[in-house]
Design goal:
Layout lengths: L4 H42 L3 H14 L5 H13 L2 H14 L5 H24 L5 H12 L3 H14 L7 H22 L3 H12 L3 H14 L30 H4 L14 H27 L20 H21 L10 E4 L10 E4 L1
Antiparallel strand pairs: 1-2
Helix pairs in contact: 1-2, 1-12, 2-3, 3-4, 4-5, 4-6, 5-6, 6-7, 7-8, 8-9, 9-10, 12-13
């Protein structure tokens, strides 16, 4: 006997539900694995196993590209390895992917850049042969909006780097970006001292005529009492900090201290997992009742061989039970899987800068 139309519809809906639940499994497992990899990476970072930590951070980011703060952790580990180029690469990648940062995240990112600028300067003082550290320290100041500090280091790199240094082409690109930033700021503010910096950048690029035009423009716009240009900085003012030492031995005690430890990220609270699992179980049970009701809808109650005078008529109850059960199941799965503003907070990574500004400290809450 061929199955009835209602039975076929019920089986189709049941198969669809099973497929949906099966596909939801990997989506939930991905963020959980990423969180676990981040925890393990932080533990390795605190034990000074920076290269192993980087590999775990990269795996976590590959599993869940929304976890962009893993890019900051990768850059922080590269900073401890002394690989300046990679540090700024990953910080800038984070900034590009998170174009609309909250004020707290902006301040955290500035802390990372500030720490990089300090440590790269100290590393150069310890080994002046690594002249490229000047270039990347200047770039960190550039990303912080401290154009005058950046130009000081760019110009010193240009004087000290060998003629064939591979980073010289990168320096030209940094100068061009600084020129664009200064022009944009001058168009917005019309501050005369910006013209001096524009002329300075043009001189460093070998554009003498353009530099002379900026100098003449400055003489026309400068206030009558102006005797020199004020320091120029873009963005929020940097918090006060002690003066940067000129040599590493002045800073040795703080650098010899043990690496700061990180508080392990918290997993989702038990109440969320238990409640979500309970809701999902109840929802599946209700959906099963709905499927059963749809399967017998219209079937004859009397034994075979007799004229059917009475049959099952669920009158939409089966469909209601099925839809309601599915909604409850989905709600339970969402309570387990989706992060939200309840006790288990979404990923947050913090940077702690000690009194001397040289100790890198990572903290995460998941």
């Amino acid at each position: 006997m061929a199955p009835s139309k209602s039975t076929s519809s019920a089986l189709t809906v049941a198969l669809f539900c099973l497929c949906a639940i099966g596909l939801a499994g990997p989506a939930v497992a991905g963020p959980r694995r990423s969180s676990r990899l981040i925890k393990q990476g932080i533990a390795l970072h605190n034990s000074a196993s920076y290269e192993q930590a980087i590999r775990l951070y990269q795996d976590a980011y590959q599993d869940d590209p929304r976890l962009t703060k893993a890019l900051l952790l990768i850059g922080a580990s590269y900073l401890n390895l002394g690989r300046a180029e990679e540090v700024l690469e990953f910080y800038e990648r984070y900034e590009q992917k998170e174009r609309r940062l909250r004020p707290a995240d902006q301040e955290r990112l500035r802390g990372y850049y500030d720490e990089a600028a300090i440590k790269l300067q100290l590393d150069y003082d310890a080994d002046p042969r690594r002249v490229e550290l000047l270039l990347f320290a200047g770039r960190a100041h550039h990303d912080l909006g401290r154009l005058e500090e950046a130009l000081i280091r760019y110009e010193r790199f240009a004087r000290e780097a060998p003629p064939g240094d591979r980073h010289r082409e990168r320096l030209r690109g940094y100068y061009e970006q600084a020129l664009g930033d200064l022009r944009h700021k001058f168009a917005e503010s019309r501050r005369p001292e910006l013209l001096l910096l524009l002329g300075r950048v043009c001189t460093d690029l070998g554009r003498e005529e353009e530099a002379a035009n900026y100098a003449e423009h400055y003489r026309q716009l400068r206030p009558p009492t102006a005797s020199h240009a004020a320091p120029v900085a873009f963005g929020p003012p940097a918090p006060p900090r002690p003066a940067l030492p000129t040599r590493l031995h002045e800073f040795a005690p703080s650098l010899q201290s043990p690496p700061p430890q990180v508080r392990p990220p918290r997993s989702r609270p038990v109440w969320r997992v238990a409640t979500g699992a309970a809701f999902s179980a109840v929802g599946l049970g209700v959906a099963g009742l709905g499927i059963s009701a749809l399967a017998v809808d219209g079937s004859c109650i009397q034994p075979p061989g007799q004229t059917c005078q009475l049959d099952y008529a669920t009158q939409g109850i089966g469909a209601g039970l099925l839809v309601g059960g599915l909604l409850v199941t989905i709600g339970g799965a969402a309570l387990i899987a989706i992060p939200g503003p309840w006790p288990a907070k979404s990923p947050r990574l913090g940077l702690g800068i000690g009194p001397t500004g040289a100790g890198l400290s990572l903290a995460g809450v998941f």
